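INFO batch 0412 | record 1 of 1 | parsing
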Amino acid sequence: MTETPADFKAIKREFSSDAAGDPERFRRVELTRQEMMAQGDAMRETFQSIAEPVARIASDMTNRPLDRVIIVGCGDSWISGIGVRLAMERLLGVPVEAVEAFDMENYGLPITGKGTLVIGISSSGKTSPVTASITGVRQHGGYAVAVTNTPMAPMIADADAFLLIKATRGGWPTQASTACMAALIEMAAAIAAARGRHEGKAPGIRAALHAMPAAMDAVAKAFWSPTEALAAILAKVDYMQLAGAGPHFAPAAFGSAKLRELAPIHASAFPLEEYHHYRTQKDGDVMFLIAPDQASRQRALETAIVSKGVGGYTIALVPEGEMAFATHVQHVWHLPPVRDDLAPLLYSVPLHLFSYHVTKARDALGLGAPRLGL
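INFO prediction complete | emitting tokens
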């Protein structure tokens, strides 16, 4: 194959650039601002939109074999699966995996079968590895649900059922991801109820889920100024790290993605424990530490202690009343109490806001993408 400039444009598929002040990128940055501040509304509208299809899916799944759920997607769609895994496992009582769609298409299909429920997520509804995963699992006898926020999306025809997410994605994904996560948990709760599990090992989750839109609206309002203030301090930073354990890796990954897309700077997300298996943080490195629950609290606190010891600059996102981190990190962001299986929804919001504000702060300084290496 001979590569040409046209090949690059076709493969890249992104019209904006990393140049300082790029008008197309900042058009999408402002759309992202609008969308991230309306995540509660997107979730409310999605709950209404999916009520009937969720009931049909639950009916279909009442007597089907179910031994495994696989959530496939690319980018934030894949990350959304990571964020809901814990909630869905507690509801359904079977393993739930979030698999990157290209990997699923090329490596994962042979081990699927009649007991597989595959959920394919694509905002556009035409991501080819997602469609291939859906059709492949169905060929092996499994049941497929397509999830998209595009009406009449092509992949809908390839699935047994579909959920239409009432979210926009004119900017980079925020509400499209969180509303999708809420929809998947709602669907899992309905399937669990239809199969006689009630709410499984997640009692009260549905009521808590329907309270999330108001909680997310409140967090967005409360954290607008704190995230803007921190962005002014960190505007010149070229690389940031984000860490979280279990489902809380999802907010870290969302935050990393938004920094790379909007700012645009280098950012990486990693599971919390992995911090301690490498020389991860260097003197002066900025890290966001996401620790909403008791299961990850002690390891997160140890991470904060190591961060301080190596000269890191760390921001801890923890529940209200958690005071142990304050002496080890530069900033503590306290969020309202939330269940650990729903925390990825709430804890994503401040990271969305920070990514927007640091983008605006960098633009005010005339900064584009940093150059690392040669």
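INFO post-check: The chain has a mean pLDDT of 96.
INFO record closed
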